[in-house]
Amino acid sequence: MFLVPQWSKMEKLTVIKVGGKIVEEPQSLKQFLADFSKIEGYKVLVHGGGRSATALAAKLGIESKMVNGRRITDEETLRVVTMVYGGLVNKQIVAGLQAIDVNALGLTGADLNYMRSEKRPVKEVDYGFVGDVKEVNAGILADLISKGIVPVLAPLTHDKVGNLLNTNADTIAGETAKALANYFEVTLMFCFEKKGVLLNENDDESVIKTLTPEFFENYVSQGIINGGMIPKLENSFEALNTGVKQVVITRADQIHTTNGTIITL
Amino acid sequence: MFLVPQWSKMEKLTVIKVGGKIVEEPQSLKQFLADFSKIEGYKVLVHGGGRSATALAAKLGIESKMVNGRRITDEETLRVVTMVYGGLVNKQIVAGLQAIDVNALGLTGADLNYMRSEKRPVKEVDYGFVGDVKEVNAGILADLISKGIVPVLAPLTHDKVGNLLNTNADTIAGETAKALANYFEVTLMFCFEKKGVLLNENDDESVIKTLTPEFFENYVSQGIINGGMIPKLENSFEALNTGVKQVVITRADQIHTTNGTIITL
Q: Which domains does chain A have, with CATH numbers?
């Protein structure tokens, strides 16, 4: 039997994942952080930084190799993403939030041993220093959050034997939402280039307001939902099945509104 | 009247500042972190990273300009030190400590609004984005430390209006020791290339065991202590006058021993 968490006794928390582009330019970052600060309740921000990593790698003469949208992370590339994700992007976001009185704390999975991963086994593709999440230690984070601190998570984990590992930001957001669902009523929000999941991909206003498993299967069978959106939504339902209250897919400039697609069980 | 802190009621904490070289090479870093983990009581580590910053800047075609041993920090250089200090060096130390079961948390002054600074006014030299420390918010840090967390501080602060600022690691260590003296019995330890303050600069074994203000003035008048060691020791006495119990100057491979020069009032 699946036990529904006792949300009525819990405080609301939103885990927001934002892609690199918005947080990598000073102007759009400032606007995004202002919108972020307007979200009510406790908050966690998970960011990317791929464009800056690719740009720095190029300046250093390191080729960026991507397979299925994932970065092949050799030793040199790991140094680049550690600098860009853990340093440049993370600390600029933290300083930007502090400037508007949001008490941000930048973290990788190594900090506080928050998220342990294992180097992905080599199968058809050798992704290099890329981590698959194995353990989330959310207790200290939950405690800090309840004191008003806003964690800002970089897409890096560690293997607990001394190595940092490059880890997909969507995965970090999902695992964080699931782990924090033991402490809060969690909404997981993915920022996307569209206003939400669309009924008609050519009509930006045709946002599906609410999506349940039944509607999802129906839309998939009709071909309305297809391609890369299917695994994204399957992951969302998995998060819901693990205690997350709702998943929202919306555009970055709408995070402080009730727009977007709300995914529930 | 100067009130001596009630050290008998306080737990011991050591703030250790280590220069870049040791923490910038995997082998020496590993040995240093093993020694660091052997220090009893609560601990804070403050690190540099100048060699890696200079190396990255050179690869990116950015010239490193130093005046009086301080880095002139233009906008491009600020990005470099944010990446190297806040990302590369800090996160490698954190991952290295987690591997030996030290629950490290990497921080800049922006994180938790821990250390606020102001951009240094332009006088004879324009240091650029360099911060002079104005405010240390040690309360949350003290709380985390008492829970067994080991802060690892990068030499970066922020101005609370959105800018990160490059800040001398010795200064961060001194300000941290002074602020934490309200909560702990603090020893401030500076790692140095010699085994301590020497009576004879040509004899590495002539370490002065204990240094008080009287002995210090005596040694200075005799020319035994001279040059850059004078401001270092003056800063040490200032820390002692602000509640720090003792300052130790020692070699990095001796931090877990009782060797080195102990400076007290």
A: 9-192 (3.40.1160.10), 195-265 (no CATH)
